[in-house]
Description:
Protein name: Replication initiator protein
Distance between the termini: 54 Å
Strand content: 5-15%
GO biological process, one term: DNA replication initiation
Number of helices: 18
Strand order of the largest sheet: 1-2-4-5
Family: Belongs to the initiator RepB protein family.
InterPro entries: Initiator_Rep_WH1, WH-like_DNA-bd_sf, WH_DNA-bd_sf
Organism: Yoonia maritima
Amino acid sequence: MASDQVSLSGALRRGEVKKNVAAIHVSGKLTLLQRKLSNVLLLNAYDTLIHKQSHAIDARTLCTMIGYNSNDMETLKQSLRGLVETSAEWDMLDENGQQEWGVSSLLAYAKLKGGVCEYAYSAALAEKLHDPKVFALINLNIQRRFTSGHALALYENCYRFVRTGSTGWWPLELFRRLMGVNDSAYYEVFKHLNAKVIKPAVAEVNKTSNIIVTPETRKMGRAVTEIRFKIAKNPQLSILDLDDGEGVRNEPVYEKLLDQGVSDRLARQWIKEHGPAHISEKINYVSARKGVQNPVSYLTAALREDYAEEKAGQGALTSDRAKRLARVRELINARSPTQRDADKRLFMSRLDDSGARLDFENHGWMSALNAEAIFAFWEDLMPGAFDDL
């Protein structure tokens, strides 16, 4: 039995964590890829989780996000089958203080058709997964760094308690279920469990993620009976938590945006979407215009329409490129956060030249060096995307 509890963007109030001692446990041994797959599917569906009966994601995008070969549909099928065959169980107090126990398949169904993965959750499970007091989402940027299923499982189960600083005491039997080793007699011996599961998982969490975990044990006589994990933020890797925005806030252009009157949230969004260099170019463009009454609105338009100083004889070329770039932005904005991340990774995988890769890393989809390759990529991903321009 393993837990699929993961951390939601934003803070969980300490009182709510104490009040809602809710646990969703997922039975069966989820592989590392299945665990990652489960998290990506949930993130993709989260915004419409309780409003839509089914959800969809491009199958190639999904494979890229999880780390599959994008053409390896058989592995994807096998993993989806495993999620449908896996049960999620919860035991908690409801809003009225009554005990509630429930069980559901982790996925109600999944199907692949026309290059699209369609899937659904049961209504009861969807309600639990959407409640931040019960369940939480983890940051995919951190998830990708894990190479061990035990380490990712430990991270998921610890991160939700980061505000309280401790998981609380878990009976050793429960911990073995959370790690998916409860059916092995070998791991009933604490010495084996500690050497093969606890120590390696703790080492990877502390090296890979934005938290530091420290195990503590309780004994009855000579036998270890309970375990808990003290939790602290990892200051060296907190930049990995994109919700904190620290990495983006360290960009020089971030301060320039604030000086223009752009909000913190919008500034971080623009930097991630357009890249620091492209935004600096537009700030300079707006700053050169006299009599601008609302710099934020002007800058928004400059980014959206790709305003630029035109050189003689290049007006038509610039206009055509601007229209295509504007269409690229429209296509990007129509994608979910999960799909946007996968699109970037898929495009990067096609760049062989180190200079081209560096330019894309710096400028994103507005990379001038990769403009033609970017247009070709989106035409291939969405045929006819530029036909009406």
